[in-house]
Design brief:
The chain is an alpha/beta fold and 201 residues long. The protein contains eight helices and eight strands; from the N terminus they run H-E-H-H-E-H-E-H-E-E-H-E-H-E-H-E. The chain folds into two domains: 4-90, no CATH class; 106-200, Periplasmic binding protein-like II (D-Maltodextrin-Binding Protein, domain 2), CATH 3.40.190. Strands 6-5-7-4-8 form a five-stranded mixed beta sheet, with helices on both faces. It has a three-stranded parallel beta sheet with strand order 2-1-3, sandwiched between helices. Strand 5, helix 6 and strand 6 form a beta-alpha-beta unit.
Length: 201
């Protein structure tokens, strides 16, 4: 026979366990810019999909390198920045890719005075960081058009997508690798001309 005190203890323990199950789990998602890669997570947050899954998600803007360090330290649970995470994984970090929405959407975008990729010979191409996805995209596009990166075209490590976009709009660099959102934003202002989409290769 269970005494009243033991019954009370069991009820309290069960109640605490139920509260823990009902409380939302915190999750931090790092993103490096308003790009297509960030879109599904922003949409899920606005539509309440995360809450339906019992998740309290915080979307935090940060550079790709900071996101990678956050993943390794545990301060960031997920990151939409593939480049930084990929470099960290190659270096031996215990992180994995778990979701891919579609093939990469990265464009080589130039100042409007350049009409084709060949015109960029002797010019500059801005990328996020060496060894990242934008670096790979730039080298692939240039090679496809007969240009050798770092010999015929200078690659400049600029930073995240917003910094690349600002540098291109100000004329600091001749061209840059940009995601879809910033590529169309620039085109709408008439200051840039899209040159090549890396997904074609």
């Amino acid at each position: 026979m269970i005494s009243f005190s033991k019954r009370s203890y069991l009820i309290i323990v069960l109640s605490l366990g139920l509260c823990q199950e009902l409380s939302a789990r915190d999750a931090v998602i790092g993103y490096s810019g308003r790009t297509v890669a960030e879109m599904p997570f922003a949409w899920a947050s606005r539509k309440g999909f995360f809450k339906e899954a019992n998740l309290d998600v915080k979307m935090i803007y940060m550079s790709t390198s900071i996101a990678a360090k956050g993943l390794m330290s545990g301060d960031v649970d997920y990151s939409t920045a593939m480049g930084g995470a990929l470099r960290a994984a190659i270096a031996g970090a215990p992180i994995v890719g778990i979701y891919s929405m579609f093939k990469a959407q990265m464009y080589l975008v130039s100042q409007s005075k350049y009409k084709q990729v060949a015109d960029l010979k002797g010019k500059t191409v801005g990328i996020s960081v060496f060894g990242g996805a934008y670096d790979l995209a730039a080298r692939t596009i240039l090679k496809h058009h007969g240009l050798e990166a770092e010999k015929q075209v200078t690659l400049l490590q600029i930073g995240d997508s917003r910094t690349l976009y600002s540098a291109l709009m100000s004329g600091t660099i001749d061209s840059a690798i940009l995601g879809a959102a910033l590529r169309y934003q620039g085109g709408a202002r008439g200051r840039q001309s899209p040159v090549r989409f890396v997904g074609d290769f």
